[in-house]
Amino acid sequence: MKHALQVTALRKTVHVGFRRRPVEILKGVDLAVDANDVFGLLGPNGAGKTTTVKVALGLMRPSSGSVELGVAGLGRVGYLPENPYFYDYLSGREFLGFCARLFGDDAATRRERVETLLEDVSLREAADTHLRKYSKGMLQRIGIAQALINDPELVLLDEPMTGLDPLGRVEVKRIIERLHERGKTVLFNSHILSDVHELCSRIAIMRDGRVIWTGSVDEALAGAETLEDFFMRVVQA
Amino acid sequence: MRQVRAIAVNTFKETIRDRVLAVIVVFALLMIAGGLWLGSISLGEQGRMMKDFGLAAVTGFGLIVAVFIAAGLVHKEVEKRTVFVLFSKPVSRGAFIAGKFLGLCATMAVVLAGMGLFLFALVGILDGRASGMVLVATAMIYVQLLTVMAVTIFFSTLGSAILASVLGICVFVAGQLSQNVLSLTRLGKNPLTEAISWVVYVVIPNLAAVDVKAGVVGEETLAWGQIGLWTAYLAAYIVVVLALAAVIFRRKEF
Asked: Which chain B residues have a beta carbon less than 8 Å from that of A90?
């Protein structure tokens, strides 16, 4: 099976404070995400999920270990950061146009892509409103749209459901399902385990900078009533 | 190159629409118009007073815009984490720095053109004839401020926005004085102080060399050949400083 993302023995130490005290955030993360999988990365706050994704994207450098993207570079990757913030004085349409320009799309492709995505995330009516007037849920949706602007093969979503109302959550879930149907690979971090259960085929659970369990959702549910029960058992073990 | 252009256009849109900028520009225009009152209390030197005070206001307000926007430009992207969106795409740190600088250059051009044309019109009304030299002086102020912007962006990759602003203003002041300080220390014949002023003279951009305000008000004759060479020197200085900023920024983690 081809991996869309493979992380091997990944370690990351940062230095904090005046005395540059070393803090090890990642302590040897091993992770493999298969192509065309919807993969859930779970774990309590501070487990290292976001850092793992940042290292995968090159936003942070690994102290040791390796990250291999199974796609042709960052040009084929989409990323939604946690609690995204964008440019206040740009409209949604301008912002997506700007993101498309970064990939060098021609004007016609750019326009078509931007309009399709605005439709997909239900922001067509607010397309010409400045982003500073967007609600948290709208920002989350424009964030998902910018992550998909290059029609990526691998999509990394950090807490994509945060701040969304039930309707917004359904829309994002539909987007993830459509991506899966189109053969894309999706990795997302989430604390909402019901969404993970609904969407993911495989999951990994992280705690204290390590992956402590990885397998399919069916395997997880074999010995527990709900994913939440299983998660609690693994994390508290 | 297309990424630099995209970032530059985005930066221009973002900065030119900022309400703080609009407030500063309105205030600057009021100050320039205040030169009319100063001129009215001078004795027969209305036009000269207007040019002198107006160009000083253009420089002062231009400096405020240049330093405070340049200092926040890179810092705000890091602080508000918009860099996550940019650098998770195939965008190089060098393209980011270059795009930010060029976008701010465009904003600065609009701001200074507005102030310069306003002053040009006022001087024309007072003198009864157009003074193209006011526009030339505004263009040379633009060259000075571009240099200060590049230096401020460089400092903003090293530390906080406030520190970058303060250092940007310090470089502007030092850049006006470094030539004079070097000349003065040469008179003292102390090799140590002369060496120190020479180092300062080399490191700090010589902004006074392209200052043509005295020429505009008729206090001195301008040597355009030399001014052209100093402008080329400042352009090279900007390129070097931005390249250093890109090297430092490349090492940053987010």
From this structure: 10, 13-14
Measured between alpha carbons, how far is A26 from A31 in angstroms, rounded to an integer? Answer: 12
Residue A32's identity, in one-letter code, is A
Sign of the four-CA dihedral B181, B182, B187, B193: positive
Domain borders along chain B are 2-250
Residue in chain B lying closest to A145 (CA): B85
Smallest Cα distance from A95 to chain B, Å:
8
Find chain A residues with C-beta within 8 A of B254's C-beta: 54, 59-60
User: What count of Cα atoms within 13 Å lies in the side-chain half-sphere of residue B4?
Assistant: 9
Q: What is the pLDDT of residues B2-28, one digit of tens each?
A: 899 999 999 999 999 988 899 999 999
- With residues binned 3-state (H G I as helix, E B as strand, rest as coil), the percentages for chain B, rounded to 5, are 85, 0, 15
Which residues lie across from A12 on neighbouring strands? A26
Q: From 3.30.40.10, 3.40.630.30, 3.30.360.10, 3.40.50.300, which CATH number describes the A1-71+154-165+184-237 domain?
A: 3.40.50.300
Strands (E) across B94-206 are located at none
Distances (CA, A) of A228 to A47, A166, B1, B171: 17, 20, 49, 59
Residue A50 has phi, psi (to 5 degrees) of -65, -40
pTM for the whole thing?
A: 0.89
Beta strand A21-34 with A210-216: parallel, antiparallel or unpaired? Answer: unpaired
How far apart CA B5 and CA A87 sit, in angstroms, is 17
